[in-house]
Every structure is written in structure tokens, then in C-alpha cells.
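Re: that chain you flagged

S.,

Sorry for the slow reply, it's been a week of failed gels. I finally had a moment to sit down with the sequence you sent. For the record, here it is as I used it:
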Amino acid sequence: MDNATPAAEEHNIVQMRSELVQYLKNYGLVRSASVEAAFQAVPRHLFLPGIDVKRVYSDTAIATKTENGFPISSSSQPAIMACMLEQLDVQPGQHILEIGTGTGYNAALLAFLVGERGSVTTIDIDEDIVVSARQHLSAAGYPQVRVVHSDGGLGYAEQAPYDRIILTVGADDITPAWRQQLIPGGKLVLPFKITQFRSILEFPLALDQVSLALQRIDDHLESYSMYAAGFMPLRGTFAVQQRRSCLLDKGITFASRKAVPNNTVELLQQSYQDQEVSIQTNIYELWGLHIWLILQEPDYCEIQKKDASQQYETLPLLGQQSDGTEASYGLFSQIGLSLLYRQPIDDTELEGTEATVNSLGEVIEKKIPRWDLPARLVIRRFGHDNELAQHLYQTIHAWDEAGRPFQWNYPMAINNLTIHAYPTDTPYAIGPRELISLRKGSLMVFTW
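Prediction finished late last night. Pasting the C-alpha cells below so you have them in one place:
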């Protein structure tokens, strides 16, 4: 398009924008006429100056700011933006609070949806992002959007209450301000992290994060839809919790909430004992078990093995990740480590073959595991903490008896899960299919 006239260039941009919208419609991400019109009307390229327009109008997240080599702000993937806007159900004339301004593009979409009678306030914790977003919004024809430099975890009381609140950054808590600044019946949509632990596992998904839509009912919020999602974490007062991770030895990575005992490497090189759990699981169910353990067990841990020496051959394999890394999870203590692995029921059923060609041109067939099929679950115990292994055994059976909650219906959502967010001082009697997690801003109740 370098030699195109301004009119031809604008025509090409409009066509690319229409093709992106049609793509989002074809995949069921844009479902309403209002969201379709917003994506057709708002020029994303004006919020990403200097970026090739073909990339701008592809279904791609584009990082716009980094810190220490890691992205901390971006223009989100249009697919997840469309999904969240559909969840939010914005109506003309409503008052919206957005947390995480980014480029300002999503705020412009919101401004289009609320129209002249509505209002949009957007907050970002970085002043430079606020300044550039104001410029982008003005250039695109949306100068009425209020852009505020503030901590999004505190909301923005000056313009409250709001009909809708949306986050474009990941959070692992519902802050009191969001709940209080939402009108009765109002809706909150955010990328919500179910646990407060940043996992190093990638099977079957790399995240325990969902695009969560909740509605305010009296003093609490109740979810009404959720989809798989991945976002950069919230920063500020209610920043997302981090894991403690360390490299134990060459090729061995360990992740936990607590400090790793000094004798962990020695334990992993010693003899072990196996205990069958007497249940069968597939990999998607194991993801649910992993969430169950994180939510309840302070001594939860994860371990990865890649290109490690032969002295770690006895480390159990629970799943294999996209980069070939083998991984497992379990519980640990000062004197022991109990990790899970999958024992095939029938090698012919649980393994397929993969053909590769070596340097001599010979075809080599290699067995590969079938992660989607069930396998026996086994606890591999290192060290002498028998109570730890028994506790893990009992916790797994409690998850099984509870109906195996938190299981992914890949790739969209978690099966039969409802999430409630109550004030932290709420007295709550736990039901038979419920689990609670007390966090800084809310008492989270998971029901299935």
C-alpha cells in the first residue's frame, strides 16, 4: 500500500476491517448487531500508529509496552475483545468503567456502544499510557472518553455508580471498589484467575484464567458466563499473586508458594515408592484436580523436567508440554515429596505412533502418549513423609467424590462452574458442592 493514493489506502483499510469483523462473526465471537457495528466503525489502526495495517486488522494481540523484557500493556486480541463485549451486554446511554486503558481502542468501542447519552471512563496505572490513549481517542473521534491515571483496583468513585465495569487486565480477586461502584443488577466482566498461583504447567491449557461475567445481586456478584482467556496481570494495590519458582538443577524447575527445602534435589535422586490412587483420569480432568489442589493446599508444588540428566529418570510424568518438557504436580514438605503420574491402562490404547526421518534417511517410529484417554493415577513418594502421601491420596479421592470439579470443556470453559464474590466478612456456610477461597478483596465461592 506504499504507492496507493490516500483514498485507495483508506478503502483497503476499510476492507481489511470488514474482513476481520466477518472472521469474528464466522467463529461466533461477534453475535450482536451492536458489537458488529462497533468493530466496523472504530479504526483500530489509529490506536496502533506505526504498526503494519495488515497486522493491525488480523486477529492478533499486539504488545505496546514492555518492562524488563516482558510485555505489560497491549492491544488485546480482537477475538477476546469481542467475546468480552458480548458478555458485557452494553446498552445505549449506560455509564461504563474500564480498567486497563491500553491503547484506548477498547474504550472507543465502548464509547460507540453507549452512544452520546452514555459515558466511558477508563483507568490505567501508567501515566505514559494515559497520555498516548488520550491522543489516540482524539484522533479517532472519541475525545469524550474520560482517561484517568489511577490504580484500577480502587475503581473510580468520582463517576460512580456504573452500569458496567470491564477489565482488560487479568485479576485473581474482585476488589470491594468494583462491587460497590456497580449498580444493583450491573455487570462486571474481567479476565479472572481462578487460583492465586501462577502455574508453570501447560497441559492441556497454559492458564487457569477465564473471561468471567458476573452480575451484582444485593451485596454480592454471581457469574453468568465464562470462557477461556489469557491477559497480562493487574498491577497496583490488588496485583495478581506470583509463584515462587527456582531452578533446582540443570533441566529441573520447581514451583511453589513456599521456599524450596534444601534437600529437594537429594530426595529426587533417591529411591521412591509408588501408591496407586485407584481412580482413572484423562488430562482434562487432571487440570481440574490441579486447580482443586492449588485452592486448598498451601504445600502444592509443580515440577518440570527438560533435557535433565539420567539421575532424574524416576521423576514421574503426568503430562508433556508443547516444548517437550515433562511435568508433574503434587505436595511437598521438609522431608518428602509426593508427585503424580499417569500409568497407562493398555499401551496399545494409550499410545499412538509418530514417524520421523533420521539423518540417514531412515523412517523411525516412536510411541507417543494419548493424553485424551484415561489412565491410572499413581502417587510417587520421595523421602519419608508417609502422612504427606496419604493426605494427597485423600484429597484426590475427595475431588473424585465431589464430582471432579474444575474440569475444562476444552477449549471454551470449565464445566458446570458458578463463581460468587461476597464481601470478605460474609458468614458463609459451605454446601456439599462448594469450595471457598478468602482473598484480599472478596470471599470467592466456587459452586458446581
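What I noticed first: The longest strand covers residues 182-193.

Talk soon,
D.
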